Amino acid sequence: MAWTLKKSVLLLCCGTLLFTGSALLYQQVRAAFFDGGESRQLNPTQLSVKHIQGQTSDLQGAFPVDSVDNYSVQRDGKDAFSLLLAHYKDSQNQQRRAVLFPKGKQEMGALPSPTGLRQTIWLEAAKSISQNTPKGALLLSWWDDGQKIHFLSGREAWVSKPAEETFISPVWKSMKANFLLASDSERGQLANMAHWLTMGSDKALVEMRKFFGTSRPIYLLVTNDLLMRLGEMVDYGGTPLAFSSKTVPAHDNLHGDIAQIKQWAYEEGGGNYLVQKEGLHYHVWATPKASVTENKSLLVRLLPFVDSLKKLPEHVKLVYQSHWGGYLSIYKIDL
After folding, report:
1. In the chain, N or C: fewer CB atoms in 10 Å?
2. Pairwise CA distance, residues 89 & 111, whole Å
3. What is the DSSP string of 39-82?
4. Is the dihedral of CA 126, 323, 11, 267 positive or negative?
5. pLDDT tens readout for residues 249-264
6. For the segment 126-154, what is each residue's pLDDT rounded down to a tens digit?
7. Residues of the chain with pLDDT under 70
8. In what order do the strands lie in the sheet with 242-249?
9. Host domain of residue 50
10. Cα angle vertex 153, ends 147, 71, to 5°?
């Protein structure tokens, strides 16, 4: 069943889908916040956000942290996921913010938490950015990834502030008072990123090379979580992209799981799919049958969809890709 992300539910969907690893909760969130008759059966007010002061000692980055906001998102009175918002000053003594993943508690013998995995991957990626990009490099990404890039690596991120369109999400809305908001020109940069990520890769790369010129090295960072941010990108003027999505229980028979996922991907679309294992489940996305808009979009071409792995777009070089199914990738754009 194909579905188009039309509303900026952002971390409301992203958090519950990815951070809990629960197939049942994923189905509830999908029904509650996307189109369809099922949405009237659930009450979005069951979601609440609790804000407390965090510990600055819990965070390590390229800059000292002045203070930390800890946001705990609860559904039906139970913790779903948490986010940290670091307040710090850059090398020019300008106030900055960074949305970060908490490390998460790790119990003996338990699976790593999805937030803990993301935090570890981002720390490793920050080291790679510092080692593999020149100091004058400019990194392109979505805005909250830009915040992580700057805080963790010290490199300049082209987009790092949200504008009003982001705060349709109740989770982001609850954090709005502590964010630094984008200016009109910075909002235009958000619109450009939404436009490029969701348009055809060839045209997007031509536009990006023309826009930035050859004055400095340009890199582009993407993560699989951007598949939960498509509605927000549409709100900034991006092209709507439709995907089929499914949660599949993980079993001891890996080959059997892969065969099941492949069969579903071919039934729902043309067999171009991306799979992300979360705890005891796989979350799978597939492009529609005879899809052109989705399969040729820059985002799909750069994320680890099975067809995208066969050949990268021209003028793009993979610099770094994380473990955990290639969750985070960094590319250099040839100018």
Report:
1. N
2. 35
3. GGGS-GGGEEEEEEE--GGG---SS-EEEEEEEEEEETTEEEEE
4. positive
5. 999 998 999 999 999 9
6. 999 999 999 999 999 999 999 999 999 99
7. 1-45, 104-112
8. 2-4, 242-249, 281-288, 269-278
9. 2-333
10. 40
